[in-house]
Amino acid sequence: MENHKRETPLKPRRLLLFPIPLQGHITPMLQLANILHATGAFSSITIIHTRFNSPATAKHPHFTFLPIPDGLSETEAGTEDVIQLLTLINKNCTGPFRDCLAELLATAAEEEGVACLITDALWHFSQAVADGFGLPRIVLRTSSVASFVAFTAFPLLREKGLLPKQDSRLEEPVLELPPLKVKDLPTIITHNSEDLYNSLVAEMVKATKSSAGLIWNSFEDLEHSSLAKSRKEFPVPNFPIGPFHKYFPASSSSLLAHDTSSISWLDTQPPKSVIYVSFGSIAEMDEKEFEEMAWGLADSLQPFLWVVRPGLVRGSKWLEMLPIGFMEAIHGRGHIVKWAPQQEVLAHRATGGFWTHNGWNSTLESICEGVPMICMPYFGDQRVNGRYVTDVWRIGIGFEGGMERGMVARTIRRLMVEREGEEMRERIMWLKEKVDVCQKQGGSSHHYLDSLISYILSF
Ligand code: UDP
Questions:
Q1: CATH node for 261-435
Q2: Which pick of 82, 300, 356, 371 has the fewest CB atoms within 10 Å?
Q3: Rounded mean pLDDT, 178-201
Q4: Of 120, 362, 382, which is best to mutate to test ligand 1, by the most ligand atoms within 8 angstroms of its C-beta?
C-alpha cells in the first residue's frame, strides 16, 4: 500500500461506507475501507451498518461504526429467503439511513467535509437519499463484472422469452452474453419472491446508472471484455481495483469464528493432496444430497477438508445427518469444521483443489492462490462465475448432474489426480501471476486505485 500514500489532505475529508449485512458483502466493503484508510488520503472513515449481522467493530478500531435500526423482527432476520430480506431492509432502512446521514452531514460540516458515500450496489434506495443531500454516491459491486452485466440484459431476455427460464431452453446459448447458457443466467429460485427479485435487480441497475462511479472487486486482465461492456452500460467511471483481499493479509471481518484446527490438520497432509470443500455462507442442501456428498468424498480416496456450516443441511444443527459408518470409513482422511480460515486454507501448501459454490469472494480467493476448482454454483451470480471458471478461464470442472456419490468421487479424482486437473492448475497459476502484477506500480488495479482516490478528492 506504501506507494498509494497521499499527503495529509489540505481539507479533512470523511468517507461514509454502508455495507449490505451478508458475509460475502461485509467482507469486501471492510476490505475496501482498509484499502482507502491505508492511503492516508481521508481524515476518517465511518461505517454505517444495520444492527442485523453487525460487523465485528472491535476488530476495526480505526473506523467509526454507526448502527441504524433495520426494523427486522426475529423471524424476518432468521429468514432463509435472501431476496425477501434484501427487499425488506431496503424499505426499512430508508428513513433511519436518511436521518443518520442528515445528522452526520450537519455535524461533519463544521470540522471535516464528507467526501462521498460508498454503498453496496444492493442498497438501491441510498441513491435517492444521497441525491437528496447532493452527496455523491459511489457503488461497490461485490461480485463479478460479468454477472452484473448479465443483470442489465434481463429486460431484453424477458422480451425474447429466455426469462423466466423454461426447462426446455436451459441449454440454449444466450447470444447477447457469451459464453452463458440460459441455465447460467443469474436468477434465484425463491418460494414466492420472483417478482421481488426482478424488481430488486431492476432497482439496483437503475440506481447504479445514476451513481457517481462504480468500484469492482475484480481486475482488468481477468474481466477485460465484461468491463468494456460495463463501461457502456454504466457510463460512470469504473474502478476495477481488486482483488481486495490481496492488499492485506487474511481479513478479520468473518461473522463466524474460524476453526484453526483446519490449518494444523492441513499441516499433516502431503502437498497439493487435499480437496477443500465449502459452499459459503448461504447455500443449503437436503439430507439426501449431504449423504451422497459424504460417501462421494469417502469414495474419492483423497484427503478432504470439509466446511459443514451449521444450517448447510436443511433441518439439521450440524453433523447429525452424517451417514452411519462414515467417520470409520474415512480413517482420518478427512477433517470437518463449521467454518474455516478460508484464505489461509487456500494458501496452504497441502490444498490442491477447491470444491466451491463459486461465490465471487471464494472464486477470487481461489484464483489468487492458484487453486483449481470444482464448480457447483447454487444461484444468482454464482452460475455466471462458475461458467467463466469452466469455459473462459478453464481453471475448474463443472459439477453436473446432481449430487450422486459416484459423480462426486469421479469429479474429485479428475481434478486432483488426472492430467485434466494438472492443466487447470497450470492455467490458474498463470492467472495468479497476473494478480501479482496488477497490484504493483504500473499494474491496472494500482492505476485504478490511484484514479479512484483522485476522483473522490475532486468532489
Ligand atoms: N469463508 C470463510 N470460511 C469458510 C467459508 C467461507 O472465511 O469456511 C469466507 C470466504 O473466504 C469468503 C466468504 O466467506 O470471503 C464467502 O463469500 P462468497 O462470496 O464466496 O460466498 P457467499 O457466502 O456470499 O455465498
A1: 3.40.50.2000
A2: 82
A3: 89
A4: 362
